[in-house]
Design brief:
The chain is built from 14 helices and eight strands. By secondary structure, it is α/β, with parallel strands linked by helices. InterPro entries: Aldolase_TIM, rSAM, rSAM_sf, Sulphatase_maturase_rSAM.
Length: 377
């Protein structure tokens, strides 16, 4: 049975106004972005919307739509208005939530009024206070972007529909900055939800700040963050931990990289090409290509989802190495994201480069639940 579409990630722009040093697109192995149109054209928008509406009618479950980039707001107000209005004409906000991931620099009242009217929530990428943020999140001239991002967050918070619009913050972990500083700062700027990502890396290229496969710098940082979270009398929800708790208690996860359920994730590039999860780009040049090089101009999404090639891609989310399949934490960690398992010698047939970090934080969360008298699976 073919997987259904869970997430449609739309690359509205293939360029960015920031130049983050850890970016898996512009600083990674992949160079295909150079050949992409800088912005999605109206002809591609029309084809993409038609394909998404067709897929909505073809499957029982709804799916999430994520506007992404580069920086998605570089598409411009006019064309972004056309895109979201066309989607909302046929796809309601309950079954087909639309969200936008932005660095915040271009957010203004005009964009926010559009998103409020068409029910598009906004998450802002920021790694913490200026000390944390300036480690990697700089502009094309190597200068700080911190004040621009903060200005965007302030615009979000001051909008009359901010309670809906501001979905939260997404932060890449900077292990050299104490977790408490990051947590306290994000709470101070009014983030209603926090989520955190490990830095990209694999067995050939260790993540920044990680000294070896067995080291636990990120696990240590996450344990510190978990202590901040659980000791706060009025905590801000942190999806990373909430998903771990859910999985420990025997429920399903909500995203790739945790739990053992596969997800139907497709990327739609500015020229209409349909690709695999773009985080794979950090593995090797072309890692996110389907051999068939499908495009929304001439291919239905259902044809992609029912193909053998898509099935093979979906199976990549499930680890195949012996150490993962015999691990007591597999049902929670899920082997981590495929990009973390990569090496030239073994392909994706290895445990995550964050294996020991995952074990440390899962163990810590489980011990806390048991201490609180919660029965764990």
């Amino acid at each position: 049975m073919a997987l259904q579409l869970d997430t449609a990630l739309i690359k509205t722009a293939s360029r960015c106004n920031y130049d983050c040093s850890y970016c898996y697109v512009y600083q990674g192995k992949d160079t295909s972005w150079r050949a992409q149109p800088k912005r999605m054209g109206l002809d591609v928008i029309d084809s993409l919307v038609d394909r998404l509406i067709h897929q909505a009618n073809a499957q029982a479950a709804g799916f999430a739509i994520v506007l992404h980039g580069g920086e998605p707001l570089l598409l411009g107000l006019e064309n972004l208005t056309i895109l979201v209005k066309k989607l909302r004409e046929k796809l309601d906000s309950q079954r087909y939530p639309i969200s936008l991931q932005t660095n915040g620099a271009l957010l203004n009242k005009e964009f926010l009024d559009l998103f409020s009217k068409e029910k598009v929530s906004v998450s802002v990428s920021i790694d913490g206070d200026q000390g944390a943020n300036d480690i990697a999140r700089v502009d094309v001239n190597g200068k700080t972007t911190f004040s621009k991002t903060i200005k965007g967050i302030q615009a979000l918070r001051s909008h009359t529909d901010s309670e809906f619009l501001f979905a939260g913050t997404l932060s890449v972990i900077q292990p050299s900055i104490p977790a408490k500083i990051t947590y306290d700062f994000l709470k101070s700027i009014g983030s209603p939800n926090m989520d955190f990502l490990m830095q990209d890396g694999n067995h050939d290229r260790l993540p920044q700040g990680k000294s070896s496969f067995k080291s636990t710098e990120y696990g240590d940082w996450l344990c510190e963050l978990f202590e901040c979270y659980t000791s706060d009398s009025s905590p801000v929800p942190i999806r990373f931990f909430d998903d771990i708790v859910r999985l420990i208690l025997g429920d399903s996860g909500t995203k790739e990289g945790q739990g053992t359920d596969p997800y139907g994730i497709l990327i739609f590039e500015t020229d209409g090409e349909i690709r695999k999860n773009d985080t794979l780009r950090s593995s090797f040049d072309g890692a996110d290509f389907f051999t068939s090089r499908w495009n929304v101009r001439d291919t239905k999404i259902s044809e992609v989802l029912s193909s053998k090639e898509f099935s093979e891609y979906a199976r990549m989310q499930i680890p195949i190495c012996e150490s993962c399949n015999s691990c007591e934490y597999l049902s929670v960690c899920g082997g981590g994201m495929p990009l973390y398992r990569w090496s030239e010698s073994n392909g994706y047939d290895s445990p995550s480069v964050y294996c020991h970090d995952h074990m440390k934080i899962i163990r810590s969360v489980k011990e806390r639940l048991l201490l609180e008298g919660v029965e764990c699976t």
